[in-house]
User: Which sequence fits this backbone?
C-alpha cells in the first residue's frame, strides 16, 4: 500500500536519480484504501470485446489498439471490486465507450471545436430526449442507456443520464480551452476536469448495486454530495499524474499536473509533487468526512460510498500499470 510521507522532498535525491515518475508518485501519494479486484473481471473483458465488436466500434485498428492499451475491464474491476457481474459489465462497457468518445473528441476538438457539436448534440439528444442515434457512437450510447434503464430505477437512470450530459458538455469546454489563446490556470483546469472526468455517471450504478435503494435524504445530504466531489477529483487527478508525460507530448492542457507546471514554471516532477499534495488533501478530507457521516447512513448508503472509494483506489492501481500511461515508467523523476 502506498502512503505519503511529508518529509519526502519535491524531487528525489541524487541517489535515486534513475527512478521514474511512477516511483515518485508511489512514494508520495497517500492511498489508505486496500487494493481489490472484481472476481468477474475476465468475464467482463470478454463482454466488452464482444460489445464493441458488435457495434463496429473496434473495426478501426487504431481504436482496437487503443482499447487493448487501455484495458477498460481492468479499470472496471479495480474500481468496482464488489459489484455483481451485471453491474460490472455495464461499468466496463461504459468505460470503453467513454475512452473512444473522449479520444475522438480530443482529436477533433484540438483542430476544429465546432466539428464536435453534432457529436455532442447527438449524445445530449439521446440522454435527454431519447432521440434515435445516427452514428455508431450514438448507437452505443443508446444501447448503454438501455442497459442502465433495465438495471436501475427511473430516478437512478435519470441521474445517470444527467451526469452523462454534463460529461458531454465538458468535452466542448475542453476543446475551447485547447484552441484558445488565453492562459488556462489551475482553477479553470480543475473546473473543466471535474466535468471531463466522466466518473459521476457511474455513481448511480452503485446505487443500483445495493440490495435496497439508498434513501434520498442520504444521497442528497450535503456531506454525501461533498464526498462525491472529493472522490471524483481524487480519482481523476490521480490519473492525471500518470498521464502527464503522455499528455505533455501530445500538447494537452487539461491535466492537473500540467496546470501546476504552467502556473509555477517548474519541472514536470516538481509539478507532479504539487498535484500530489492537492490529491492528498482531497483524500484526507474524504476520510474525515466519511468518518463523520458513516454512523448516520444506512447499509445501502455505506455501500454507495464504497463505490466512491473504489474509484479513488482503482484509478491509482489501474493508472500505474496500464500500457496507456507507460511513459510514466520511462520518464526519469529528476527534471
Assistant:
Amino acid at each position: 500500500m502506498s502512503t505519503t510521507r511529508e518529509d519526502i522532498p519535491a524531487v528525489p535525491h541524487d541517489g535515486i536519480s534513475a527512478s521514474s515518475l511512477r516511483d515518485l508518485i508511489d512514494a508520495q501519494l497517500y492511498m489508505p484504501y486496500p487494493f481489490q479486484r472484481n472476481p468477474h473481471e475476465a468475464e467482463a473483458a470478454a463482454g466488452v470485446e464482444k460489445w464493441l465488436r458488435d457495434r463496429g466500434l473496434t473495426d478501426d485498428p487504431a481504436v482496437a489498439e487503443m482499447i487493448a492499451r487501455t484495458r477498460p475491464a481492468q479499470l472496471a474491476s479495480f474500481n468496482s471490486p464488489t459489484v455483481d457481474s451485471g453491474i460490472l459489465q455495464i461499468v466496463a462497457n461504459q468505460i470503453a465507450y467513454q475512452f473512444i468518445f473522449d479520444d475522438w473528441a480530443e482529436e477533433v476538438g484540438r483542430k476544429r471545436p465546432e466539428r464536435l457539436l453534432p457529436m455532442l448534440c447527438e449524445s445530449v439528444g439521446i440522454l435527454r430526449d431519447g432521440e434515435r442515434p445516427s452514428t455508431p457512437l450514438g448507437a452505443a450510447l443508446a444501447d448503454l442507456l438501455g442497459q442502465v434503464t433495465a438495471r436501475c430505477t427511473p430516478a437512478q437512470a435519470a441521474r445517470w443520464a444527467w451526469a452523462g450530459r454534463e460529461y458531454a458538455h465538458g468535452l466542448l469546454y475542453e476543446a475551447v480551452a485547447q484552441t484558445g489563446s488565453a492562459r488556462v490556470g489551475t482553477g479553470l483546469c480543475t473546473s473543466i476536469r471535474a466535468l471531463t472526468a466522466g466518473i459521476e455517471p457511474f455513481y448511480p450504478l452503485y446505487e443500483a448495486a445495493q440490495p435496497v435503494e439508498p434513501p434520498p435524504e442520504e444521497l442528497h445530504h450535503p456531506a454525501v454530495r461533498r464526498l462525491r466531489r472529493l472522490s471524483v477529483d481524487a480519482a481523476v487527478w490521480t490519473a492525471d499524474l500518470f498521464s502527464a508525460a503522455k499528455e505533455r507530448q501530445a500538447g494537452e492542457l487539461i491535466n492537473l499536473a500540467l496546470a501546476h507546471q504552467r502556473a509555477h514554471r517548474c519541472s514536470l516532477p516538481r509539478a507532479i509533487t504539487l498535484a500530489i499534495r492537492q490529491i492528498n488533501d482531497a483524500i484526507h478530507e474524504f476520510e474525515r468526512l466519511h468518518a463523520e457521516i458513516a454512523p448516520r447512513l444506512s447499509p445501502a448508503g455505506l455501500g454507495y460510498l464504497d463505490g466512491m472509494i473504489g474509484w479513488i483506489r482503482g484509478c491509482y492501481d489501474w493508472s500505474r500499470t496500464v500500457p496507456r500511461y507507460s511513459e510514466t515508467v520511462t520518464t526519469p523523476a529528476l527534471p
